[in-house]
Amino acid sequence: MLGDKLRQLRKKHHKTQAELGRLLGTDQSGYSKIENGVHSLPVSLIATIANFYQITTDELLNFELEQPRSEIEKALEKLDGYKITYKKGTDDWIEIPISQSYCFRVPAKKLPLLIARLEQRTDDSLREARAQVFKAVLFDYLQSDNKTD
Fold first, then answer.
1. Burial letters for 42-81: b for 16+ Cβ neighbours within 10 Å, e otherwise?
2. What is the pTM of this model?
3. Where does 36-105 have alpha helices with state H?
4. In sequence order, what E strands does the chain have?
5. What is the CA radius of gyration of the chain?
6. Which of 15, 41, 76, 87 could form a disulfide with 95 if both were Cys (CB 3.0 to 4.6 A apart)?
7. Lowest mean pLDDT: which of 25-39, 45-59, 134-148?
8. What is the spatial distance between Cα 53 and Cα 83, in angstroms, rounded to a whole number?
């Protein structure tokens, strides 16, 4: 949130809300409302604050360009998210331990396809499980509803 960033910068530079308010053409109360998110910081003043703190507007707005990631990097990130252990053997292979004594070696370029298949099967399984649970809940509801009639 921009207000948090403004507060952090102000405190880091040992400035008061009144000082920043004067810089922006308002008073302490007006600046406080910007920091607390009650009022928005006018776009025309973003550069003023960035220059005051000697930072870029991107830094002020916490804007970072994300470096493009390869499909393999995205797939490895998903493995991390699924808590699946793996080891990068080389740039061409990913090793996935199945047991303490056995490891699958998967061509790295095939990993995105395998992740897509995993996600499809997981989605299908979850849909089926939800349908079964819904039927059970519906059955319980209908039974309890009939008892009250």
1. eeeeeeebbebbeeeeeebeeeeeeeeeeebeebbebbee
2. 0.43
3. 46-53, 57-60, 71-81
4. 87-88, 93-97, 103-107
5. 27
6. 87
7. 134-148
8. 41
